[in-house]
């Protein structure tokens, strides 16, 4: 296995481990317990309940009062607000990923230079690679820190949606927020928007990181399965969050996508000739 592939896999597994750790520490065992102002524990008092309160606040505000609260619209508003709040972290994560991609040609040269599989050569490869990172100011694990910070917020919002009892009693558009989408429209849209978002994020890197190409298909399938299983309120959250991230990704990666498209155009034209 090449160093680049090993480094990528380590980052993937580290990310999964961090998500799992945060999920465990964030009290997922309480997912079936309603959240109120009397809920105890740091996780409930300082993360889940404030998010639940914000959802209820906007539901009352947009609906004109508690009796006519619009929880669907409130979930949309709070989702957008949260995405804006963590936007700097997402930008930092994207920049870290772009920096790693820019070093791929240099890393390829190092792998070719130290192609021998003996321990001494591999240690030299590791040293040269770390020196390359230091020279360009790149931290291969920098993309994991924003993920670690984001996850408690996103998981907390998930908890707030699932554990706010009032949400289960309201409808939005064609579905009841506390029930599954009867027409499976939201799960399908959630899957499609996840695919588009993953495709944009992976644009130009499929050949460099073939291990990640499968994520373009795996993530949408997982989201559809989850969305079919969970209440429609959570599917609504996923759809809105995905649309926001698609717009965000287009704005951040727009120049790269355009450059990639322009680079491919002469090749296709040459092939036709």
From TrEMBL:
It is found in: Cell membrane. InterPro entries: YidC/ALB3/OXA1/COX18, YidC/Oxa/ALB_C, YidC/YidC1/YidC2_Firmicutes, YidC_ALB_C. The chain crosses the membrane at residues 12-29, 41-59, 71-91, 140-162, 182-200, 212-230. GO terms for biological process: protein insertion into membrane; protein transport. Keywords: Cell membrane, Chaperone, Lipoprotein, Membrane, Palmitate, Protein transport, Signal, Transmembrane, Transmembrane helix, Transport. It is a multi-pass membrane protein. One of its GO terms (cellular component) is plasma membrane. Residues 71-253 form the Membrane insertase YidC/Oxa/ALB C-terminal domain. Its main location: membrane. One of its GO terms (molecular function) is membrane insertase activity. Belongs to the OXA1/ALB3/YidC family. Type 2 subfamily. Required for the insertion and/or proper folding and/or complex formation of integral membrane proteins into the membrane. Involved in integration of membrane proteins that insert both dependently and independently of the Sec translocase complex, as well as at least some lipoproteins. This is Membrane protein insertase YidC. It comes from Metabacillus mangrovi.
């Amino acid at each position: 296995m090449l160093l680049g592939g090993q480094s990528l896999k380590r980052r993937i597994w580290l990310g999964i481990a961090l998500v799992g750790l945060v999920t465990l520490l964030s009290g997922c065992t309480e997912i079936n317990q309603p959240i109120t102002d009397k809920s105890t524990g740091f996780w409930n008092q300082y993360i889940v309940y404030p998010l639940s309160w914000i959802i209820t606040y906007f539901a009352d505000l947009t609906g004109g009062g508690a009796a006519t609260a619009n929880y669907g619209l409130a979930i949309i508003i709070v989702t957008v607000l949260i995405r804006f709040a963590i936007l700097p972290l997402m930008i930092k994560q994207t920049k870290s990923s772009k920096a790693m991609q820019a070093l791929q040609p240099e890393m390829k040269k190092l792998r070719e230079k130290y192609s021998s599989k003996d321990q001494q050569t591999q240690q030299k490869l590791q040293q040269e690679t770390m020196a390359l990172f230091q020279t360009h100011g790149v931290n291969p694990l920098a993309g994991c820190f924003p993920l670690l910070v984001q996850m408690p917020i996103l998981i907390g919002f998930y908890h707030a949606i699932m554990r706010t009892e009032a949400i289960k009693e309201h409808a939005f558009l064609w579905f009841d927020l506390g029930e599954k989408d009867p027409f499976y429209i939201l799960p399908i849209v959630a899957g499609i928007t996840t695919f588009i978002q993953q495709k944009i994020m992976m644009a130009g890197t499929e050949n460099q990181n073939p291990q990640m190409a499968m994520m373009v298909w795996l993530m949408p399938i997982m989201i559809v399965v989850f969305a079919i299983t969970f209440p429609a309120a959570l599917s609504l959250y996923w759809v809105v969050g995905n649309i926001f991230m698609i717009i965000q990704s287009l704005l951040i990666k727009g120049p790269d996508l355009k450059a990639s498209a322009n680079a491919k155009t002469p090749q296709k034209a040459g092939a036709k000739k």
